[in-house]
């Protein structure tokens, strides 16, 4: 009798964001016990980055934006390691963590993004730039502390009530939308006259929400201005200081709260591990593998993908990360079983930006959406993600009521 | 026909605290339109100082501790002036406000108290010492901001999670009671291990809750220690610094939140106006008038009253302020109508200190109360005040359910 010992391959997934979580659910279903699957994440929870403007502004509990990883994944089929990735040792096929190492046969890198500062001094020291559960909570508590401080200090410094959002992209607009909607409530709670609160959105580019239809951009700006938001477009920030921002035009704006939202770059682990990358993003092969690596898939915000139609990279979105995850899981299965690998093509179903309250703007197919219909679509998108991740049960448990 | 022009006397009440509000309600009822009654207060709301440990710890909305003055007083019978008192010009019989002056025939001074620092340096700069609605809100928001900051900073500084309460008197104990009860909830919300949170109560005197029965003090300390509170008794604070406190014994404790609750002194307006006073408190005549002044009554925390039995001043409490207000209103009426003036004698009905959750300790008559029965009594006392102020309607609207 001949015994063939088959060593099961080790599949390691780094990061429990949109890409990592969808990859994990698909692999546990499609491969199950034919491989040792391990998910590594810094926290024992997954969170929905695209919802974080709400807890940051204080309009949603941060608990609503996260879920324990063990509540979504079947830990009989996948091992979860709560640890922080330090480096990927590509030659040795292993991952160095803060408290150990993991060997892999197949690696999925879904390490997400970091704030892009564009070299502006003072961002890390004086601005809030981490768009995470921890980061969002700190922004919320900081703003409330500043409002509480105002009336309790004899000087009543106006800058305590000034919030600057650097960047009029998706994140900046969605955040100021929530915050501007909440300001009247904050003013009532802390006995502050509404006119004392100043909200600025400062953008270096010549338009807010670049890439969006101009009619939608105008709708959004008009709406936000009607709630007291002041836009400074085409207005680069030179420096962030302890007391506010210095603009390239020489002006200074005093503010106690500065939220940095000028866009993201890929995880710095990418460069630290020696991958060739642009701002932390690796230009992946059509099958989502890193160039020159048969065994490493890179998905989500660390993957750079060119939109051939306009010869510019696709923006790093949750939608694309999730679609990449589906292809990545399928390709790993093919590598294990000998099938052919799929080519990734994004299928942009639509984009909706919420503006706080019942307001939003968006594009679905070629259709422009405004106000409540866009808001409805936004909630549908949020719920659809929960459906993709955990089926109808998760939508019922954690979804947003679109009524 | 002979016409006699009678000039109505001007009665001016300074401060809408316990003393001022009860005086105002009694005078409007007993004197009504026979005098021009004016109430001056910094805010357009009255608040219950003795409830403030709850919003400061975040266990009750600050809204529950205050009420608009016009919701309690009948503004057809009393004029309300929202302004800040600067000085009492006794010779000219007028009061200087930030935005004007008021002449009086009878003056009631109920300006309340300020924190007593005992000359310890750094209190005003680095500790929270204002026990007001604004002050309580700032303490709450500061603690939450520090908790939120902890996980979002790479260093995870332990002192962010340390709260020092200076003073183990009534206010300090009630505050740490609420806070210690809330800590598990804060830890869950901000993902903080409970053992990282340090709560200190530091007291210079040889006992916590001086004047309370030793058995009750022991009950309170044991209970609070079981919730993780560390007491340092007989341990004077030498200085409050930007990073914590320096103790007289040479130790230092790092802490981001320092709450100063070592007791109060009377309003500094008292000394500024030339009254002879000890720590802002005027030793009043038995009829509650300031010595040498026929027309000035001083009540509440600005009045000093000796308890002859133990030859020490009565503590400045809401209970005594309210009892003073009744006598003060009656004596003003007598001055106007020619009756004889009453002598004030405090009638201490009992004292209860809440310890957070369903816990409290107290003395009612000669009976000691612990736990839920003391807690029940505390809520009854809070409700009884509302009854005295605004009748059963106010209890129903704003009271605490003692179940």
Account of the protein in words:
Two copies of one chain form a homodimer. By secondary structure, chain A is of the alpha/beta class. Chain A folds into three domains: 10-115 and 264-347, FAD/NAD(P)-binding domain; 123-260, FAD/NAD(P)-binding domain, CATH 3.50.50.60; 349-403, no CATH class. The first copy, chain A, has nine helices and 26 strands. In chain A, the strands form nine sheets. Chain A has a five-stranded parallel β-sheet, covered by helices on one side. In chain A, strands 13-12-11-17 form a four-stranded parallel β-sheet. The A-B interface holds A 43, 62-63, 130, 132, 134-135, 137-138, 140-142, 144-145, 147-149, 151-152, 189-191 and B 43, 62-63, 130, 132, 134-135, 137-138, 140-142, 144-145, 147-149, 151-152, 189-191.
Number of domains of chain A: 3
CATH class of the largest domain in chain A: Alpha Beta
Structural class designation of chain A: alpha/beta
Beta-strand content estimate of chain A: 15-25%
Q: What are the low-pLDDT stretches of chain A, counting only 5+ consecutive residues below 50?
A: none
CATH architecture of the largest domain in chain A: 3-Layer(bba) Sandwich
The chain pair forming the largest interface, with residue counts per chain, is: A-B, 22 and 22 residues
Count of discrete alpha- or pi-helical segments spanning 4 or more residues of chain A: 9
Helix content of chain A: 25-40%
CATH domain topology of the largest domain in chain A:
FAD/NAD(P)-binding domain
* Rg over C-alpha atoms of chain A, rounded to the nearest angstrom: 22 Å
The description of the largest β-sheet of chain A is: 5 strands, parallel
